């Protein structure tokens, strides 16, 4: 395995690790009944993720750059593997970076710093409001049955 393979496998493994860490919380948010604790955990996790120190953000973006450079360097030697597998991998990687820049970062920003119309509220007040909404929905669902 050469440098080019390592330059692709390292960042991909890094991002699979981040995805696994996020999935532990996302699983509860997506497929379990919503409770105040789950919502609070989600807000706290993603707010912490967004407000991470600059060194952690730099590491994340450096790994993205290394993976991109690794895939482009693998295309330099144009053979069948590069044409089909590496080319499609580069397309998927560029698509993932585009989703990160256009969807994930603005969503994390909205979670960490609520929208303009909620400017006066703190994050704790927002959690309390959403927790109350979830409890009211659960009570209504319980009364209907």
Explain what the structure shows.
Helix 1 (3-31) runs antiparallel to helix 2 (36-50). It contains five helices and no strands. It is mostly helical and 145 residues long. Helix content is 84%, strand content 0%.
Average per-residue pLDDT, rounded, comes to 82
Question: Strand percentage, roughly?
Answer: under 5%
- Radius of gyration, CA atoms, in whole angstroms: 20 Å
Order of helices and strands: HHHHH
Number of strands: 0
Low-confidence stretches: none
Oligomer: single chain
Q: What is the structural class? A: mainly alpha
Structural domains: how many: 1
Short key terms for the protein model shown above:
145 residues, mainly alpha, 5 helices, 84% helix, elongated, transmembrane
Brief rundown of the structure:
This protein is an all-alpha fold. It has five helices and no strands. The protein has one domain.
Task: Itemize the secondary structure elements and their pairings.
Layout: H1 3-31, H2 36-50, H3 54-76, H4 80-112, H5 123-144
Helix pairs in contact: 1-2, 1-3, 2-4, 2-5, 3-4
GO biological process, one term: endoplasmic reticulum to Golgi vesicle-mediated transport
Organism: Armillaria luteobubalina
Protein name: ER membrane protein SH3-domain-containing protein
């Amino acid at each position: 395995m050469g440098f080019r393979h390592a330059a692709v496998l390292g960042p991909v493994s890094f991002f699979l690790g981040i995805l696994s860490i996020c999935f532990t919380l996302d699983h509860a948010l997506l497929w379990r009944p919503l409770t105040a604790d789950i919502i609070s955990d989600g807000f706290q996790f993603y707010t912490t993720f967004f407000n991470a120190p600059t060194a952690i953000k730099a590491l994340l973006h450096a790994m993205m750059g290394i993976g991109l450079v690794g895939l482009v360097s693998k295309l330099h030697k144009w053979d069948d593997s590069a044409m089909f597998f590496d080319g499609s991998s580069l397309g998927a990687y560029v698509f993932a970076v585009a989703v990160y820049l256009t969807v994930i970062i603005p969503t994390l920003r909205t979670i960490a710093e609520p929208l303009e119309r909620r400017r006066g509220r703190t994050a704790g007040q927002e959690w309390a409001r959403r927790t109350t909404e979830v409890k009211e929905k659960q009570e209504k669902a319980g009364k209907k049955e």
